[in-house]
Amino acid sequence: MTPGFSHSRLAGADRRWVMLIVLTTLTTAGMTVVLPVLPFVVLRYVSGEGELALWVGALEAVNGLCAFIAAPFLGRLSDRFGRRPVIIVASFGAALSMVLFGVGGALWVLLLARVIQGATAGDLPALFAYLADITPPEKRAQRFGLLGALSGIGTMVGPALGGLLAAIDLALPVFVTAGISFLIATLSVFLLPESLDRKNRIPAIAVSDLNPFAVFRRAFVRPELRALLIAFALLALPFGFFVNNFSVLALDSIGWGPTAIGLLIAVVGVIDILVQGILLGYLLPRMGERGVIVAGIAAQTAGLIALAVVAALVAQPWLFVLGALALAAGQGAAQATLDGVMSNAVGADEQGWLGGVTQSLTAAMGTIAPILAGVLYAGVAHAAPYALGAALMVIAAVTVRRARIVDAAAHRASPDGDPAGVGVAAAPASAPRA
């Protein structure tokens, strides 16, 4: 058995896994219930469309900035005190932020609500660290895929529910989101066991853990993480281009309206769920983690090229749909597998730290992607974001090919589940190495 992952930690894992399923689905559904009505809530306090766009962008930018700053520290808190307290605090923070947003009254109240939301955005990193705690290394990539599929289900259900609730009252989705967050916190208080053994907790939190740039620096200098994190960022940016720009491309290139775009979003969500929830379990034992990641990158590259062709040469709906589906399928396979590989590259006491690093990196890419996509699309060419995305994917594939990766097959082949001391045991119970 891998050091740091004993049989005692497997005891009760089924109950923990059930709770993880429930909490992850509720978390992602709660995060997205409010999405359809956010601009309309803000519209109550502004005078025109230009001001609306400015404030919606500012509110989301503040939320992303706070998450970027807070996520590494919250992840480290979970390594010090356990996953459960961070999940509880983050859920209560989300509930408070949504109540404030629903009550409103002024733009500064909405701004405060988004600050609280971002500053307490530690639930998903802690949930993913929880998954790493209760799952053997050789099964992590597959279970990260299952968790990604559950997130996809929550993301599909949330906006649909929000749209239906908004027909009753515009503020209702906001308060339902608050109620879901409060439910998550309550379930965590009474039903969620702690997953991180005391022997695997760090003794103290360093002052440098408050600085996300210092955390990034320590993460990127580690040879077992450097290439993986570079690949993570290179995958996140082109997918961010797609998420933030594809509806504009659909309108400009093939004349689609909201209904057609919404249906495609639903199909993309279904593909993502099928790939992460079902197909990964078939592919990983046969191709290994590296093979699945590279294949996923290849699918994303093909999808981005297809979208670039639609934008520049052949404005055909079938090619647009094919490109979007290939991109979504590849992203689902590569991202979940990469999450599992990174989890195996750090110690049992670093899972929360790693979750904070990736959450903060995601927030950074999520801030950069829409701005860069808009500048390239409007200022260079409609195909530019997708052409750049395809080029970044090629770099990501080369990076993954050179990265240090221990495949699940190697884990299973070792009698103790940790070949050559690589995997969870590769990083002893200590603070992140400088």
TrEMBL record:
The chain crosses the membrane at residues 20-46, 52-74, 86-109, 115-132, 144-168, 174-192, 227-248, 260-284, 291-314, 383-400. Signal peptide: none annotated. It comes from Microbacterium paludicola. It is found in: Cell membrane. Residues 413-434 are annotated as: Disordered. Belongs to the major facilitator superfamily. TCR/Tet family. This is DHA1 family tetracycline resistance protein-like MFS transporter. InterPro entries: MFS, MFS_dom, MFS_trans_sf, Sugar_transporter_CS, Tet-R_TetA/multi-R_MdtG-like. Residues 16-408 form the Major facilitator superfamily (MFS) profile domain. Pfam families: MFS_1. Keywords: Membrane, Transmembrane, Transmembrane helix, Transport. It is a multi-pass membrane protein. Residues 416-434 have a biased composition (Low complexity).
